[in-house]
Each structure stands twice: as C-alpha cells, then as structure tokens.
Predict the 3D structure of the following.
Amino acid sequence: MNKTVNQKAWFFVAPVLILVAFNAIVPLMTVVNYSVQETFGDNVFFWAGLRWFEEILRSPRFHDALGRQLFFTGTILAIEIPLGVIIALAMPRKGPWVSVCLVLMAMPLLIPWNVVGAMWNIFGLPEIGLLGKTLNTIGFDYNYTRQPGDAWFTLILMDVWHWTSLVVLLAYAGLVSIPDAYYQAARIDGASSWAIFRYIQLPKMKRVLTIAVLLRFMDSFNIYTEPSVLTGGGPGNSTTLLSLDLVKIALGQFDLGPAAAMSLIYFLVILLFSWIFYTVMTRGEEQ
Amino acid sequence: MARITLKNLKHAYMPNPVNDEDWALKELNLDWDDGGAYALLGPSGCGKTTLLNLISGLLTPSHGSILFDDHDVTRLPPEQRKIAQVFQFPVVYDTMTVYDNLAFPLRNRGVDETTVNKRVLEVAEMNDLTATLGNRASGLTADGKQKISLGRGLVRTDVNAILFDEPLTVIDPHLKFQLRSKLKELHTRVPNTMIYVTHDQTEAITFADKVVVMNVGEVVQVGTPKELFEEPHHTFVGHFIGSPGMNVLACEVKNGHAYIAGKKIATANKAVAKAGKSEIGVRPEFVKFARQGLEARVVKVSDAGRFSVVETDSAGGRVRLLVEEGGAIPSETARLEFDPAATRIYSNGWLAGREGRP
Ligand SMILES: Nc1ncnc2c1ncn2[C@@H]1O[C@H](COP(=O)(O)OP(=O)(O)O)[C@@H](O)[C@H]1O
Ligand SMILES: [Mg+2]
C-alpha cells in the first residue's frame, strides 16, 4: 500500500506537540539540568558532569531499592496477569450477571490510591484489623509493621486486590470480541477446552494482555502512594521501593543532583523494559 | 456415512414461543439420502443456518428429533456426530500455520501423523494452498482464509455429512466458480452427503442434485432443479427460482376453474373449493403474444441477450414474458396466451390440488 504524503498533517499534530513539550519535555529537561550539577543552596549551581550518575549506579542503596522494585513488580505481574485471565474466563459472556460482574470488578479501581493504602493499613493491624486479627487468631504470628515478610505479603496482597480487576477488564474485553463462529468452528473441529484457550482465546487476548502487562509494569514501577501510606517503606528499609527512596533523597535530604540523576535512571529503566517487552510481544506480527 | 432424518423438527431461539413467527424453524420432516448433493436455498433470515446448526449439533432443537440412520443424535454434541461444517465467514487459527490449521480437526481426533500428512497435502492441493502450507494463517487474504476453512471441512474422512453455510460469500467470483466446481467434482469422487447453503439460485442449481427451498422458517419444496422450475409447489418457489421469476396473477375461482376479469384461463390443475387467496402462476417462458387471450398493455422492454424481457400490465397484474431476438413486440395493447400445461392455480400460495405441504 502506498502512503499519501500530506504535509498539512503537521498542522493538526502541532497543538499536541506543544502541549507535550510543556508538560513533559520541559520538566524533563529541568531534571536533566539538575542531574549534572551540584548545589549548596542559595540557587548557586556547579557543574558536576556525570558524577551523580556514577555515584547512584554504584551505590548499594540504589541496588537494593532497584532489587526490591524488580521483585515487587515481578511478583505482582506473575500473580495479577494469570489471575486476571482466569477470572475473565470465568465471567459470564451474556445475561444479567455481566453488568453485576463488571461493576464489582471496576470497584477497586475507583478507590483513591491513598484510601487503598489507608484501608489496608487498618485492615492489617494485628490488634483491630479484620485481616491482622483473624490471622493472629488462627495462629499466625502476623505483624506487618514489624516483620518484613508480613509487610511484603500485605503489600502484594493489596496490589493484587487493587489492580487485578484492570487485567480482568482488559482480558474480558478481548474475550467478548471473539465472534461466536470461532467457538462453533472449534467445536466442529473437536477442540478441547485447553486447545480453545491456547489457539483461540489466548491469541485474541494477546494485544490486550500486552497492554495490561505494560500498564501494570509501568504503574507498579512507579507505585508510591499505597506503600507509602501502608508501610512507609518499613519496617526498616525492607519495603522501600524505588519511588519511596527517590522521595527520601529528593525531599528528605534535598539532594537535588543525585535525586535528578536517579529519576533519569529510573525513567530509562522503565523505558527500556517497556520497549523490550513491547518489541518481543509484537515481533513477527508484521510479516 | 449415514442417512439423515429430521422428524417433527422445530426450533425457536426464545424460551417460550407462542406465535408462528416465534419459531426460527417451523415444523419440518425431511430425509437426506446418504451421499446426496443437496442445496439449501432461501432468502436471508429464512432459517438456513439454524437448520444446519441443528444438524451439526451446535444447536439443540426445541422440539423433534434428528436421526443418523436409525441412531437418535438429537442430544449429542457436535464432536460426537461426525459432521463437518464450513461457516459463512472464515475462521482460522491465527497463530498456526496453514498446515497446522488443516491438520487441526484430525489431530484433535488422535489421527496418526502419517495419515494427517497425507490428508493435509491432498486437501491443500485441492484448495490451491500447497504453496502457502508453511505460512502463518493470519497473514492470508479473506480468500485464502476461507480456503483454509473449507479445507478443514474437507480434511476429515470419517464424516457423515459436510455442511457448507454460504461458504463462498467472501470469495471473488472467478475463484467462486472454480471452488464450486471442485466441490462438485469432489462429491463425484467421494460421495459424502453434502448440504450446501446458499441464497443464490445459480449456485444451488449448479451444485446440487436436489434443492431444498426454504422460506420464513419452513421448507416449501424439495426437488431437482428441473422439478423446481417446471412445477413449483409454491408461488415463492416460482418467484425465487428462474430469472425472471414466475408471474403470479390474481384470479377468481369458479367450479375449479380460474378466471381473470371474467375470462377463463386454461390451467394444468384444478382449484379445490377453499377459502382464501387464489392466484395463477405461469413462467415467462410459457407466455406468448397471440391473437386472442388475456388483454394486456406493454410497459417495458429490456434486452437480456438472446431474449427480450417484456413487461406488460393485465387485469391480473404484471406479466413478464420472453420474446426471442427479432420477434415482434406489439407497441401498446396486446393479448397474451398462457401454455395451459405450464399454468397453475395456487391457493394461499400453495399449488392447488396437491395434498399437504412437503
Ligand atoms: N442466535 C440467535 N438468536 C436469536 N435469533 C436468531 C439467532 N440466530 C438466528 N436467529 C433468527 O432466526 C431466524 C433465522 O436465522 P438464520 O438461520 O441465521 O437464517 P439464514 O441463515 O437463512 O440467513 C432469523 O429471523 C434470525 O433473526
Ligand atoms: Mg445464514
């Protein structure tokens, strides 16, 4: 197919370009600016070159935070994506229950993030929270404010509760878009339920699942509000994810240079992972 | 291989059908002989797909039963019925190659790989897919995808019947003709029962030995293309088959004879005393201009190759007739003569004097 060349199109994209320039590129450039300078206050800056980057990349503190971040993101993806697909498969395709299910699924997504954090904070309290109290009553020694393992457990459970619905809704949208003829043909062809999933449902869900993974990856990599309200990064530093650490450096210690360098590294990591994932998932589609 | 019998079969999509219109398929009794090439012909929405899905088991009838030979299969799911079905719009398994698509129905049934390979190559050859066997199915055109769907329908050897639901709708005309001829040829080689659904009379007539004509949820006539042309059992059949279709004229009936505007029309059958609408049916092929006969006025002449189609207005309504090239066409008023052997009385749409519906 031949593409028509039409320079007028630039005119239509220009407003968007300007908007993006002001709300993304300009702030990003300021961050780049900070990341190569040093300041001792009074708005006096000195050129620092790539020193902050080297420092950050070498610092064990950054490595730990990045490790925790990768562990968190990996775990929630490994739970939320399969779980979301399973729930979507179990949901009815027709009838009055469809809207009931959809509303139930959308509910966690509508709750403000800090409220989610606060809810789980109370829910998990060992003395009064429903979850914490129940676990302790049935014999588990559960205390998320003291034991890192419990803090992680609560953090992941909270994220799964909050975000699996997003995967469900996306996967469900993919499922209902499959025409009946596919299922009919599969029955005529004698396909098992597994074969139907493998060769019809999964391929048809691939696009939406790619989007789901990307969204969940980026969102969980950026997650700040909920863990900050739930554990505040503790106990100790055990649940200090990248964003929490960044805020500590930038606002707690007001080290603008290192914070800016870390932001950029952080941004590049997200970009890199997303790009790799997207390329792998869409490879071989355009042949 | 089996003879398929439909007994008092009825189907409604709604749970509690009350009116006649609630039934997508009205009561139906029909036998499909083993090895027959059938066409199921009827306008869109008349229930052709519904009937096919009942036979293949994708739908369970609200009423009645389906027998394969003497074996009742009414409640059996499709996978236990040994029926192949090709759908109107192409269904391909996107992530598989063309080869794996064709092999899919066989592999699901545990057929050994040597047989699979042999069958897949045969079917690919027949459907012109040999060159693309190794390609991913998702990259093909609509034509190519439908050829795969067709191939999956033909690849199995254990089937009682192959059902085609308007399989060539999305295929371009040239290829359509070619594939239809191949199906026909295949049928002479491997005499499987084939039921070919279409709303196109030419397609039905060229493919089938027997045509089942349907209209609004019921079968109106079953017969060879010749029978449908020569003796339509319903004005619908007369109208739907043949181009132009049969002329249907309003008439009165006295003592079993038909009259238009007080003038007696000689017919092949006699009307029985019955309340309701009486009509005369005669195909354009059996009408000619004459000295005497029904008075009419020529309104339109259109050229159709070797013939001209002449439209006239008469007291009974519009009458079309065919005039050979070079034949005289009266300019205004004329008289029409009907061949009595091919002129019939219909009451309430059905051929008068014939007992019952098919
Ligand atoms: N899944 C369905 N649910 C409800 N009504 C249907 C369904 N499928 C078909 N119908 C109705 O049944 C009638 C026959 O349809 P169909 O068998 O698809 O006709 P055809 O194949 O001859 O075009 C139509 O009136 C159609 O609206
Ligand atoms: Mg149909």
